[in-house]
Amino acid sequence: MAFDWKGEYAKVTSTFPNHGQRPVIGITGNFGDRGCELAEGYFRSVLEAGGVPMVIPPYEDREALLGTLDHIDGLLLSGGGDINPLYLGEEPSPALHSINPRRDLPELLLTRLAYDRQLPMLGICRGCQVLAAALGGTVYQDIHEAMPDTRLLKHSQDLPREYASHTIDLAEGSLIRGIMQANTLPVNSFHHQAVGQPGPHLRVSATAPDGVVEAIESTEYKSILGVQWHPECFILRNDTTMLPPFEWLVGEARSFHEAVSLHRHILTLDSHCDTPMFADKGINFTSRDPQILVDLHKMTEGHLDASIMVAYLPQGERNTETYRAVTEKTQHLLHYIQQLADSNPSHIGLARTPDDLYHLKSEGKKALMMGIENGYAIGRDLSLIENFRRQGVVYMTLCHNGDNDICDSARGNAEHGGLSTFGREVVREMNRVGMMVDLSHAAESSFWQALEVSETPIVCSHSSCRSLCDHPRNLTDEQMRALAEKDGVMQVTLYEGFLRRDGQATIKDAVQHINHAVEVMGIEHVGIGTDFDGDGGVPGVASASEIINLTRLLREVGYTDEQLRLLWGENFLRVMRIVQLKVEVKS
Fold this sequence. Notes:
Largest sheet: 9 strands, mixed
Shape: elongated
Number of strands: 22
Structural class: alpha/beta
Strand content: 15-25%
CATH class of the largest domain: Alpha Beta
Strand order of the largest sheet: 4-1-5-6-13-12-11-8-9
CATH topology of the largest domain: TIM Barrel
Number of domains: 2
């Protein structure tokens, strides 16, 4: 028999490589007497499902773990020994079996970091328990000890692993039921630990007849699934009945990979963010701060390039003394945005123009822009508009929740019947200095009059569709069409109350609003303004770290890469260029 490795080499190199089309699945390795090891069924199942397996040894180097996650598209948490209960805040019970001191810390870290990055994950047996442990759930050290009043099945079988040993029930409407296309399922079973409570991010989706948890999955529109049985063992006798979980993981990993690749090649801009509202809360923008939805870590995890952060001014009294205080607060908040950009100059920069944004992206940096939410910031002083523009403010929302000296608000008392005389001067001055006019929060009367007065296109930095959610803050189809006719842009926002009247909105509702806006206005006039840290964020896209999920879902419903480039910022930046160029031409 000839061992023709050169012939195999010739086959591999005879055509253009297409390995990039197959997602890389990182598989956590076990650790035994000879070091890192992995049962054959895991990598064979990944290969059979169309993925590229990559074994991740158990190591605790934090930088290396982060680097690993940057090079995989999905994570498979393999089976193995018991989890050390000390990591769960518990002392070991007499029923605890052998633990592997090399695996627990790196796998718990990997799981949580992968969760932050929206990486698709599949946990098997021990891996299912690791998912629960890393995401706030509990694990029974021993099911017999934890469930003394239950007549348990034999969950640790003597039967060969590639054969089923008992059945489980798959929850109605669950991900696992959809994957397996079954209500009940025969599985194998080799464990004495199990998930106790799935925690806040996961739900139980399958149980054994005795009530032992057999599967858990995400409640947050993330690609996370854990199974207590060992589907990888069936492939060892060429039985593909348990291949679907691996096909699901590879499919989700492919979707994730394609979305991330797109984000590398386009500029992603969130047109409205309220993080400066936390200026006096002691936040650390360069850390992963739990107080806020947008920071450097979350922007990186979600592959968000740029955010327009606003100086928000709640509507208050309208007198000389109050205006002085409001202007001071505006300056304080704008200075704070500048400080956020200055806090880590190697990774963040302040942008004033669309070209600045692209330049910062080319340098591998995140970008911040300045906006003002509520023209209340200028009081009755027109000169402040040019002052704020010179500081870098790219747009000003004419009002907020309440009428001001500029215009009537959607939540006001129709004081002016739309724009005031002063308000018309404000719009013209904003045109003159190159600052975009933002009509989110404005009354319909203000909208129509500003659209007539403005010489440049207008934006609505964070609004949604009234025909889908009847809220005065949202735009009617008539307003949306008129805005598009004037080359303006509407940025769909993620505040649940503007997506659904019952406030039970999810990422799917956000996509419905984007779809409707595109249908009414055309793809060139729609974008995304999350309102993160100003009550924006819904399950599935609840922070900047989950932005990539929105791209994945938009691709799934049929948007092309070019259309996504427009939605994710280019439409909004087109208007910004027009507004800013007008000033350059006049000067």
